[in-house]
Amino acid sequence: MSTETAPAAERAAAPSPAAWAEARSRVYAVGLAAALPVTARPIAEADGLTLAEPLTTRTDLPAFPTSSVDGWAVRGAGPWRVVGRVLAGGTPPPLTEDGTTVEIATGAMVPRGGTAVLRVEESDRTPEGLVTGTPRATPEWREPGEEAYAGEELLPAGTPVDPAVIGLAASCGYDTLPVRRAPRAALLVFGDELLTAGPPGAGRVRDALGPALPAWLRRYGCEVGPSDVVGPVADTLPAHVAALRTALADADVVCTTGGTMHGPVDHLHPALADLGADYVVNTVAVRPGFPMLMARLTGPDGRARFVAGLPGNPQSAIVALVSLVAPLLAGLQGRAMPVLPHATLAEPVSGRGDYTHLALVRLDRAAGTAHPVRHVGSAMLRGLAGADGFAVIGPGTTGEQGSRVPVVPLPLLPGERAS
């Protein structure tokens, strides 16, 4: 057992909340230690995955001198006698005599022996068919290695693959890329009081997390299928143990909703103890969402599996998602620990005493400001629907208007970059 974890049976009763920043670092470290296997994927299928090795050039870029304009590749002083034509994709014979030229297209290989490229719009033809004009002083071709030299590292391992990376890899001649496979995630929804269809009423509430969390997880790069979402799971210990055991057989990360406290029908902690789990984090000093947890087990294949216990209140569950699940998934994918951007508070935000406060905000990216939103109770989702992320108000502080604070962004689609 590592020094970072303790058996679920030992620590469930009286956990000591981890500081929010420490909890993020801890789950990232265990995720990185359990980074997912490497696989080769066709470049067109690699979007949203993560480079497992540095992307290096296989040749100089460009690999040969290429004309940057339409015109004439000339040798020596003019006028020049036309001896041929070279188009993109062809290999021209060398120019061996001064006073000769070949017509050349943009992107075509400049023939060996060429001393300049004359733009077509700056050229003329004599009645005898000779080409005249004055080439510009700056060469009108791209030199080999102008963008990169053969073997040069263009991107490090851990880089998320997006369309720009795919295009760069293709330009280097790659057909496949070594990437970390996507994390497989499952979701178990706990709570007999939950409805899965129709409006709430008669003491029962509609499950909002079962439909929503898989979409959030996909935005973090996870694979989540319809059969990976199970619930509501019956409020009994045997049902919780069976559901967890089944989900952990295939998933790298199992998220659960509800049951993270120690009430009469909160069976998550006893279920984790029954399965032999170790806690990575058991409660976090953050509001909302403090009864979140992350536990680790060893699967039948010897690989680590993780259970992320998210509180049942919807906004608290998303706080747990961005606090614990996001850094864990970054580690599993071999990515760097997410660096939080900063924004200036447009309005004051209260602190939460000794706890970190994650306050929902809407970002004005042009102005670099964060604006608190309304309807932010832990059971509410209205504020979340209009927010871009959470402003981080540190323990023992308040967010004064005009102060610069970190912001935890809500996840984007795989490969998408924030503006």
In short:
With 419 residues, the chain is α/β, with parallel strands linked by helices. Helix content is 19%, strand content 29%.
Summed up, the helix count is 8
Count of the separate structural domains = 4
- Strand arrangement across the biggest beta sheet: 1-21-23-24-20-16-19
CATH homologous superfamily designation of the largest domain: MoaB/Mog-like domain
Any descriptors?
Molybdenum Cofactor Biosythetic Enzyme, Chain A; disordered C terminus; 29% strand; alpha/beta; 4 domains; Molybdopterin biosynthesis moeA protein, domain 3; 8 helices; 419 residues; magnesium
Topology of helices and strands:
Layout: E1 6-7, H1 8-11, E2 18-19, H2 20-33, E3 38-42, E4 50-51, E5 55-56, E6 66-67, E7 71-75, E8 81-86, E9 100-104, E10 116-119, E11 123-125, E12 131-133, E13 141-142, E14 153-155, H3 163-171, E15 176-180, E16 185-190, E17 194-195, E18 205-206, H4 209-219, E19 229-233, H5 237-248, E20 253-257, H6 268-274, E21 278-282, E22 284-287, E23 293-298, E24 304-310, H7 314-332, E25 342-345, E26 356-364, E27 369-372, H8 382-385, E28 389-393, E29 404-409
Parallel strand pairs: 2-22, 8-9, 16-19, 16-20, 17-18, 20-24, 22-26, 25-27
Antiparallel strand pairs: 1-21, 3-15, 4-15, 5-14, 6-13, 7-9, 7-10, 11-12, 21-23, 23-24, 25-29, 26-27, 26-28, 28-29
Helix pairs in contact: 2-7, 5-6
Domain MoaB/Mog: 186-331
Enzyme class: transferase
Family: Belongs to the MoeA family.
